[in-house]
Automatic annotation (TrEMBL):
Residues 30-380 form the Aminotransferase class I/classII large domain. Keywords: Aminotransferase, Pyridoxal phosphate, Transferase. It comes from Nibribacter ruber. This is Aminotransferase class I/II-fold pyridoxal phosphate-dependent enzyme. The lineage of its organism: Bacteria, Pseudomonadati, Bacteroidota, Cytophagia, Cytophagales. CDD domains: AAT_like (cd00609). Belongs to the class-I pyridoxal-phosphate-dependent aminotransferase family.
């Protein structure tokens, strides 16, 4: 039998850096500050609601668009947070995680040859999704070292072929967040050009120092042309449940749902029942910024004696750090060395650039128990 001829649709894609570093951490018994997940549990009340839903028999398919009760709660919460009331039937879709929502949004509107403007460094699922849909990624860069958006560069990259502008705030991996002038600049661009917007806002409840999250949904002229993605996994410390949602105007939602129904059809039913009940607990997500700011500040304090230079973190649960006072290794090699020799796993930032731009910076996740952060910092301060 002759060998099958197979041409990869993603020839440059291998195992993700998150899987690689987590596996390396396991091999060397390292503290894993690489992959972005909490090592503490979700609210007990939420667990009870999900368990109750299972015992009540809510274990069959949910509607493809999501449970009505959950979509209603999402709509109410969105109005409370951002002054925007999406229609529960025509503008809110529950998805199997934010990654699915991102893919569905891209697949819904990107035709072969369309350009998608991506701002780097960026989350690793964006570009493969664009390429699988036949789109052409066009790259702009956040300024270093503050990782702000250069809106003139964004405008210079726009062409008649630009179908979609993909944005992320609070920003993974840098921890940067939008300022009001960013929304104003984006609105001015939207008035001059006809692109759509895909806004990844999964860390919406992790903005620090008393500042609000500035959602695309808070600006009507932007919301009317945008997919906005959120994540219950990030908000409720349940990344393994893979439940997110997309808010978009009716015309975009209709196309989004055409793709969504053939990706996952629907999302786990008991999780949706539990989340619908727990969304009435506004206290949890309203207190989340202070909860994670305390962890950010503790981690920064613990690393103060170290040779790492911390880059200011305004949001998310990630802390960037320069290591040039410790090593001149490229960041991928340094991350591997740190895992093996110091016993702390991290993520190198160059992997978030298409051309592996290397600023000698790594990313630590501080969504961990206090004892985890203290143990990791102790090892890092020995360097």
């Amino acid at each position: 039998m002759s060998a099958l001829s197979l041409q990869s649709k993603l020839p440059h894609v291998g195992t993700t850096i998150f899987s690689t570093m987590t596996q390396l951490a396991l091999q060397h018994n390292a503290i894993n500050l690489a992959q972005g997940f909490p090592d503490f549990g979700c609210p007990e009340e939420l667990l009870e609601l999900v368990t109750q839903a299972m015992h009540q028999g809510h274990n069959q398919y949910a509607p493809s668009t999501g449970l009505l009760a959950l979509r209603q709660k999402i709509s109410e919460k969105t109005q409370l947070m951002y002054g925007h009331l999406p229609h529960q039937d025509h503008e809110v879709t529950v998805t199997s995680g934010a990654t699915e929502a991102l893919f569905a949004a891209i697949a819904a509107v990107v035709q072969p040859g369309d350009e998608v403007l991506v701002v780097e460094p960026c989350y690793d699922s964006y570009v493969p999704a664009i390429e699988l849909c036949g789109g052409v990624p066009v790259y702009a860069s956040l300024t270093y070292p503050d990782f702000s958006i250069d809106w003139q560069q964004i405008e210079d990259k726009l062409t008649p072929k630009t179908r979609l502008l993909l944005l992320n705030s609070p920003h993974n991996p840098t921890g940067a967040v939008w300022q009001q002038q960013d929304l104003d600049a984006l609105q001015r661009l939207a008035e001059k050009h006809s692109f759509l917007i895909l806004s990844d806002e999964v860390y919406e409840h992790m903005v620090f120092d008393g500042k609000p999250h500035l959602s695309i949904l808070s600006v009507p002229a932007l919301a009317e042309r945008a997919f906005v993605i959120s994540s219950f996994g990030k908000t409720y410390h349940t990344t393994g449940w893979k439940v997110g949602y997309c808010i978009a105007p009716p015309a975009l939602t209709a196309e989004f749902r055409k793709v969504h129904q053939y990706l996952t059809f629907s999302t786990a039913t008991p999780f949706q029942h539990g989340l619908a009940g727990f969304l009435d607990n506004q206290k949890h997500y309203q207190q989340l910024p202070a909860f994670y700011q305390q962890k950010r500040d503790l981690f920064a304090q613990l690393l103060q004696p170290s040779k790492f230079e911390l880059i200011p973190c305004a949001g998310t649960y990630f802390q960037l750090a320069r290591y040039t006072a410790i090593s001149d290794l490229p960041d991928v090699e340094f991350a591997q060395w740190l895992t093996k020799e110091a016993g702390v796993a991290t993520i190198p930032i160059s992997v978030f650039y298409h051309d592996q731009t290397d600023h000698r910076v790594v990313r630590f996740c501080f969504a961990k128990k206090e004892e985890t952060l203290r143990a990791a910092a102790e090892r890092l301060c020995r360097l």
